[in-house]
Amino acid sequence: MTTIVEHHHADVSGGWLRAATFGAMDGLVTNIALIAGVGGASTDRHLLVLTGMAGLVAGAISMGIGEWTSVRTQNEQIAAELDKELYELRVNPDGEADELVETWTARGLPPDLARQVAEVLKAHPEQALRVHAQEELGVVPDELASPWTAAASSFVCFAVGAVIPLLTLLLGYDDLWAALAVGGLGLFAAGAIVSRLTARPWWLGGLRQLLLGLLAAVLTYGVGAVIGVNVA
């Protein structure tokens, strides 16, 4: 007797994971770089907090709008392609069936079985459209990402990421390096968490994000220091 082993996959079709990950990382890197850049010219805590909060609000709004527009545009493009495919299924069902047979036999399916399945699908246009969409476009028509979910995930996660480098400053500490250190810890933690979702070594993911954030901070700090000296 065959034992059926149940296993579960993560939900990767809703459009929230990529937006949330990108939003959090972008929020962290953006505000770390902003604080470092301004800190290179001035260590005034109020100025650093103002810079960080402006970056948080502007960045979160920008990320939300960008994600909504991106996903909505992608979905509209997919919808247009699906309309074309549905038209072809109606006016040329035999030709579309031949396409499926050719695709499946190229993957090793017996020709007779491929033809049998393709003929069955001809009698069910909705299922035929779903199969053609998966085979030709690489999408599942009823599992497209939600632009609102992507926008909300990006907005919230950017704001959360952006506030981390500001924590010590908001608590009244004037030390720029403490703020950057907390931001670095946030980057390492975010990279480690994301790596766990992808089954990669957590320390490698964390170290990679930390080094990328460090590079951004060093570059912007240098720019701030040069501009600050020249203005002074």
Automatic annotation (TrEMBL):
Record has Transmembrane helix as a keyword: yes
TM regions (residue ranges): 20-40, 47-65, 148-170, 177-198, 210-231
Domain of life from the UniProt record: Bacteria
Keywords, in A-Z order: Membrane, Transmembrane, Transmembrane helix
Membrane topology: Multi-pass membrane protein
Pfam families recorded: VIT1 (PF01988)
Record protein name field: Membrane protein
Organism: Actinoplanes ianthinogenes
